[in-house]
Amino acid sequence: MKTILITGASSGIGAAIALLYAHKGFMVFAGGRSQERLADLAVQHENITTFSCDLTSKESIENLSLNIPALDILLLNAGSCEYINDALNFDGDLFARVMTNNLIATGYCLDAWLKLVKPNGQLAITSSCASFLPLPRAEAYGASKAALTYLAKTLAIDLKPHKIDVSVINPGFVQTSLTDKNTFKMPCIITADQAAQYIFKGLSRKSSEINFPKRFTYTLKLLSILPSSLWKYLASKMEKGA
Q1: Alpha-carbon distance 15 to 196, whole Å?
Q2: Domain that holds residue 80
Q3: Which of 21, 83, 108, 141 is catalytic?
Q4: Residue 141 annotated as catalytic
Q5: What is the Cα–Cα distance from 44 to 179, expressed in whole angstroms?
Q6: If I label 85, which of 46, 74, 152, 242 is the partner at 20 to 30 A Cα–Cα?
Q7: 206 torsion bin: left (phi>0), alpha (psi -120 to 50), beta (else)
């Protein structure tokens, strides 16, 4: 039986991925913060073992009592999203919180679990299509995701001699508890189950980048090659129209 460890699995994309891989015959180790939601997830399939852990605490991860075997896939999916609503009065605490949740916690997970990935295994890191270009109010979220993308692409080089493939996952808008808080229009939004299918197919192909939904992510890729002055103008118009 193949094995996968998934973080951020108590809800949203992570929970959908955990269930999909369990149904595909994988032994799934699913981690998250909410013990109640994890308990609901665990009873949905016998292949799922859940664990609750504060991933922003290296000590909490090290003290985790969980017998994890060698892994075929390590999927680091946990993260948070908060926006800087007043750039002039920059919220440094918010910035630090988002960077810790999205980036520093990923480093702690790599420290603990990367060594468990088998030769010919896979590492996947969930970034965001927000990393493609600067977006209004995304100083914290976008910066953390851009850093994750760089991290994944660098690891792809350094892990190649160890025969570990690396994928960076760039979702567009996905219907989750995080996006439920958004007050602006979210083009091409998809469900968590649809996102899980995209991720499963991409990892099955060992794709270096998994971008979805295609129409939305291709549009952002095209916009990212515009002159920066033109994109600033368009982005400012977008923000005023939000």
Answers
A1: 9
A2: 3-240
A3: 141
A4: yes
A5: 24
A6: 152
A7: left
Name residue 227's beta-bridge partners.
none
Comparing 165-179, 180-194, 198-212, the range with the smallest average pLDDT is 180-194
Token look-up 């032994």 returns 27
The strand pair at 209-212 and 165-171 is best described as parallel
Counted domains in the chain: 1
- Residue for token pair 């951020």: 8
Q: Which helix (H) or strand (E) holds 105?
A: helix 105-113
Tell me: the pLDDT tens digits for 103-155? 999 999 999 999 999 999 999 999 999 999 999 999 999 999 999 999 999 99
Radius of gyration of the chain (CA): 18
* Contact in structure between 222 and 130 (CB atoms under 8 Å): no
CATH of the domain at 82: 3.40.50.720
pTM, full prediction? 0.92
Q: DSSP 3-state assignment of 38?
A: helix
